[in-house]
Amino acid sequence: MIIEPKKTAVAYRCPDCGAGVMSAVDVFSLSADRVRLRCSDPECPSRQGGGESDANRHLDVVAVKDAEGGRVRLTVPCIFCGKPHTFTVNTSIFFGKDIFVMSCPYSGINICFIGELEHVKAELARSELELLDMLEEHGMSEIRDFDADKEAFPDPQVYEIVMFVIHDLAEEGKIFCRCEKSGEAEDGEEGDYSVDITEDGVLVRCNKCGAKKLIATNSLIRAHDFLNCDSLTLE
Prior knowledge:
Elements lengths: L6 E7 L6 E7 H6 L2 E3 L21 E6 L6 E6 L8 E6 H6 L2 E5 L6 E6 L1 H21 L19 H15 L3 E2 L1 H5 L10 E5 L3 E6 L5 E5 L3 H8 L4 E2 L2
Parallel strand pairs: 9-13
Antiparallel strand pairs: 1-2, 1-8, 3-4, 4-5, 5-6, 7-8, 10-11, 11-12
Helix pairs in contact: 4-6
């Protein structure tokens, strides 16, 4: 009697061309070494120039041993952020679910799919329709038209988030500029800053030394990145 090893299907969407990338992963290959998935489309921009794609474009699956019997860590490329997200799941979930999905923490859109092959195929197709509907709303007809580094999904909350953080940093005295270096700033003195909204973002400027900093506001992702800043340095 031959015992089939535990296996599951893993899929993600290539952030360069939008194609679905899927492969089977079994317990033996995972325990031996990391499993790496990458886009196989020869027309994909990630494969141009030698055929080796950027490390942020691969999906890595790595077994992590622990006292509970083991977990699986996945580093998943994100079509929305332009940088990968890391997830850790229990092996019982990785090999035992018909379908299990993981989402981009900023957009809420599913970017990784694990489970039985047919379930993964169906979920990958469903997510493609959802993504195409979203792109169509913003004047794009194909997934490969999307560029995470350009303005794609502006959100009315973006300015509110950025303005809140700037106000909070100013109150805490965590906005720095050339005044400190030149000795113009005095102890206990509040900074004299102006905030202007431009086409490219929110421009923060010191009215004394002229130092400034542009905070990009063309996506909710960038606004959330700025939300985690503990200081702001004007240049």
